[in-house]
Amino acid sequence: MRIDLHTHSTASDGTDSPAELVRNAAAAGLDVVALTDHDTVRGHAEAIAALPEGLTLVTGAELSCRLDGVSLHMLAYLFDPDEPELARERELVRDDRVPRARTMVAKLRALGVPIEWERVAAIAGDGSVGRPHIATALVELGVVETVSDAFTPDWLANGGRAYAEKHELDPFDAIRLVKAAGGVIVFAHPLAVKRGEVVPESSIARLAAAGLDGVEVDHTDHDEPTRARLRGLARELGLLTTGSSDYHGSRKTVRLGECATDPEIYGEITRRATGAFPVPGAGGLRSA
Question: What pLDDT was estimated at residue 83?
Answer without folding.
Answer: 97
